[in-house]
Amino acid sequence: MKFKKLLLASLLGLATSAFAADYDLKFGMVAGPSSNEYKAVEFFANEVKDKSAGKIDVSIYPSAQLGDDRVMMKQLKDGALDFTLGESARFQIFYPEAEVFALPYMIPDFDTAKKALFETNFGKGLLKKIDDDLGMTVLADAYNGTRQTTSNRAINSIDDMKGLKIRVPNAATNLAFAQYVGAAPTPMAFSEVYLALQTNSVDGQENPLPTIEAQKFYEVQKYLALTNHILNDQLYLVSNETMADLPEDLQKVVKDAAEKAAEYHTKLFTDGEESLIAFFKDNGVTVTTPDLKPFKAALQPYYDEYLNKNGEVGKQAVEEISNLAK
């Protein structure tokens, strides 16, 4: 009987090892399981497992379980984490010139954002520094929505922004947008925004359309202005240590899966934005499209600040990206 039990245990062990992955990798992210970002990362994990024939298994850690994006970037550098997401502009915490990716009205569309990162000399230089200094590689770039403005009164022109008490995240570019267009920027924790809008503690807020829908801000704000002020992206990042541990064929699997996931990620946001305008209108929201030329002109002093801070590399960034956008 004892022999039979040992034999059974041995057979079960062989069966388990036959299906075990050769590489158990971790993907940390800030967004939660209901987000478009999570759906895209799940797509990535499934694609990697399928195309590697089960040799790579990717476990997902959403909702900032492993820390915020800055913490997870450091974990990638140290080889303690395999994958994470991060905006191009987020790299300004290491390289101040990367703020260019979030300068209001600098990046008009996602195609320009990708070219700015992968095709300009400025972008290529930044990617090299990320690789050499931070020990991580950018596998792919995805569209993550464009920030718009909701309010408790109609915004038909830049004049209607005057004195508008608008909640913004505590980020320099978002604060600058509100300030330079004449509003009163009010930094506030994201968790407090719904109640602040509901009680008119603030007059408005700015976020991508999918966030406005997910957080149900349309329930307490009946005006939406398509201010299109900051385009958000998401980079699929991998630790260089992780890639070095993989044979070339599996490195290719990871790269290809990231590019496919980024395409899916982008589609989720673009499709969502198209349908959400109609959704908001159906829910009683008045949608306005103010002339954005005066908005961009109002931000020129902030562009000058950026150039003064970043010297020649900042000048290169603005010139190359501006030429792309023409």
UniProtKB/TrEMBL annotation:
Cellular component, GO annotation: outer membrane-bounded periplasmic space
Cellular location(s): Cell envelope
Binding-site list for N-acetyl-beta-neuraminate: E87, R147, R167, N207
GO biological process entries: transmembrane transport
Origin: domain of life: Bacteria
Signal peptide start-end: 1-20
Gene3D superfamilies membership: Bacterial extracellular solute-binding protein, family 7 (3.40.190.170)
Alphabetically ordered keywords of this record: Receptor, Signal, Transport
Sequence similarity: Belongs to the bacterial solute-binding protein 7 family.
Protein name: Tripartite ATP-independent transporter DctP family solute receptor
